[in-house]
Amino acid sequence: MGSFAWRNLLTRPLRTILALIGLSIPILGVMGLFSVSQGMRNLVGDTLSRVEGVMVLRENSPSPVFSDLEADLAVTLKGIPGVRVVAPEIWKVAPNIEGRTMFSKLMGGGGAKSILDQPVIQGQDIVAHQGLKSAVYPRAMKERNGEGRFLVAADKNKPNIVISKKLAKDYPGADGKPRKVGDSLQIGGRPFHVVGIYDTGSMLLDVVVVMDIGMARDLMGVSKDMVSSYYVETDDATKNDEISQAIEKALPRVDARSMSEFMANFGSMMGQIDKFLMMTVSLALLVGVVGIINTMLMSTTERFVEFGVLRTNGWSQGNILTLVTLESAYLGLLSGVVGCILALVGVMVANQFVDGGVRLSIPAWLYVLGITLSVVTGTLGGLYPAWRAARLVPMDAIRVGSH
Fold first, then answer.
1. Are residues 29 and 65 in the same domain?
2. What is the b/e burial string over 337-348, where b = at least 16 CB atoms within 10 angstroms of the residue's CB?
3. What is the DSSP letter of 116?
4. Is there a domain that residue 388 lies in?
5. In terms of residue numbers, what domain contains 344?
6. 227, 252, 277 — which closes off a domain?
7. Could you tell me the pTM of the whole model?
8. Number of other CB atoms surrounding residue 67 within 10 Å
9. Which of 2, 219, 252, 348 places its Cα 20 to 30 Å from the Cα of 16?
10. End residue of a domain, out of 195, 225, 252
11. How many domains does the chain have?
12. Angle CA(199)–CA(205)–CA(206) in degrees, nearest 5?
């Protein structure tokens, strides 16, 4: 029965190919969208794994950029058992850099090409940050061959900055070459001196311009009595969640978030996005079902004589039903395999053009999901044509098919 069904598909190559195209494209869509989702998960997971401390923000603030806290909270934080270092920070969306605003960059005027490329100012309390063992940017400069040096105590209240290789490339000098150590960079109409260039390899981290907290306050118009957030490093990173709870108990109006909490929140958000993607792709799968139904209906209509002859030679209605259902299931299987191959090739090509730490990937479970969806869709699409073919009376089928 199985080999007979395969031969029936091969003897009608045009209809088989059209059905394959109709169903493999939705499967390609499923694989492609979820590979992007997986790539974002990997990017955020890799980024958060580098941040080993606890971020203290204003309650319900989505990120440090939208947070503001009193500067004197540092005293309370330092008094919490298990806290090793409290480092105040200023986080703000960068003003125009080299005369280019966010809008002009997004519209193609150079620099950022998406909202994720928008540069951000991070003002650090240099002395406090020098006491950190898990500081992200100094470590990146050492591990990934950074240029120049990181900020030191002598940079306090001086217009010295550390930028990423990405920003150096996005905002080239007058000669069109990337900025280098020793160059000047205009931020908010003020000249800043580049003393170091880092590279984390993550598009989420490589948009940060690091400077002294006093210079950041002056540039962004932030009061000396305010900070955006505190980076808290603990004596034991495995107890970050416990210390986060202790911080929130001591300071009711703040959120203390460990990176595991950030990751859990992001995972929950991506789960909702995945549901939306699945609802969207379901429409395409519905189109695939309609395509399979159309293909199998046309196929069965053309084969009324064949079904009539088979019935007169002893085939039962169940045999006919099984044959047509198998053909549609095989179409679904072939479509799933083709869709998976196309998705794999597409991901390999796309990864040659994306950067910033984003790597699209297709885990094994996604291949299983794609093929399963395709087989189920193909089988469901063939049920009605199979039922229609199976209920034909043998002689009526021969008579109708011969006209």
1. no
2. bbbbebbeebbe
3. G
4. yes
5. 2-45+266-401
6. 252
7. 0.73
8. 23
9. 348
10. 252
11. 2
12. 45
